[in-house]
Amino acid sequence: MRFTAYRHMVNVCFTEKEAKAEAEEILVEDGPNEDGMMYQRPGKLADYFPKPFANDAAAAAANNGAIPPDLSYMVLARHGGEDYLYHLLNGYCDPPAGVELGEGQHFNPYFPGGAIGMAPPIYNEIIEYDDGTPATQSQVRERKKTRGSNRIDTLSKYLRGAGIH
Ligand code: HEM
After folding, report:
1. Is the C-beta atom of 68 inside 6 A of ligand 1?
2. Residue 12 C-alpha to ligand 1 middle, in angstroms?
3. Whole-number Å distance between alpha carbons of 6 and 21
4. Average pLDDT of the chain, as a whole number
5. Could you tell me the distance, in angstroms and rounded to a whole number, from the CA of residue 119 to the centre of ligand 1?
6. CA distance 25 to 43
7. What's the pTM value of the predicted model, to 2 decimals?
8. Treating both helix axes as pointing N-terminal to C-terminal, what angle do 137-147 and 81-90 enclose, rounded to 10 degrees?
9. Distance CA 115, CA 96 (A)
10. What is the mean pLDDT of the segment spanning 5-24?
11. CA 9 to CA 31: how far, in whole Å?
């Protein structure tokens, strides 16, 4: 999510206060100060999401060789946009007879070729809603859609929590 800043969350999935509180949970390198030293400070709304991996090689090493793509503009980058994302995230199933999956791969008919290096990231009860809405798998994904945005902002919290993308 390298092109997504905390300010992008405001009035999409967080109030300004909530987005500020989220930002403050990370440490950002800033500076130099008057002594010429770089220093760390809590994040601000203008800061971009921290990278989950130091570099592409570290990302591949942690994911069976598949590098998680940047998701900032994924809705615009894939044919079908939000509908593609919805079905990709909800479309995991057993592979049909005769399909062999490599280590760390999962079957998803919505992913080109069917073998995807991402485990199902959303499943029932993955989060708790403040209003008590049952967090079924499709509901988690749908709630994002109905709040509407070309970025997948509402999922950012879980992505960051999962330390991915
Ligand atoms: C809600 C959370 C997540 C969302 C919305 C999400 C979404 C996506 C999307 C849209 C793609 C690209 C599919 C394409 O190229 O068409 C992708 C790929 C990938 N994701 Fe995720 N992801 C999530 C969580 C995770 C997590 C937790 C991991 C790892 C622990 C992960 C690892 C990967 C990997 C390795 C790929 C590349 C797959 C391949 O090329 O085979 N993702 N993800």
Report:
1. yes
2. 22
3. 10
4. 87
5. 8
6. 7
7. 0.79
8. 170
9. 11
10. 97
11. 25
> In Å, how far are 3, 48, 110, 118, 125 from 79, measured between CA atoms?
20, 26, 11, 19, 29
CA distances from 61 to 3, 39, 104, 145 (A): 23, 30, 12, 32
Per this entry, what is the length of the chain?
165
> 6 with 20: CB under 8 angstroms?
yes
Q: Which atom of ligand 1 is nearest to the CA of 63?
A: 35
Q: How far apart are the first and last CA of the chain?
A: 6
75 lines ligand 1 (CB under 6 A): no
Q: Take atom 13 of ligand 1 and give the residue whose Cα is closest.
A: 111
**CATH numbers and ranges of domains, the chain:** 1-50 (no CATH), 55-162 (1.10.760.10)
Whether residue 27 is predicted with pLDDT greater than 80 in this model: the reply is yes
Atom of ligand 1 nearest to the CA of 111: 16
Q: Say how far apart CA 140 and CA 163 lie, in whole Å.
A: 18
The one-character DSSP state at 5 is: B
Radius of gyration of the chain (CA): 18
Angstrom distance (rounded) from CA 38 to CA 34: 10
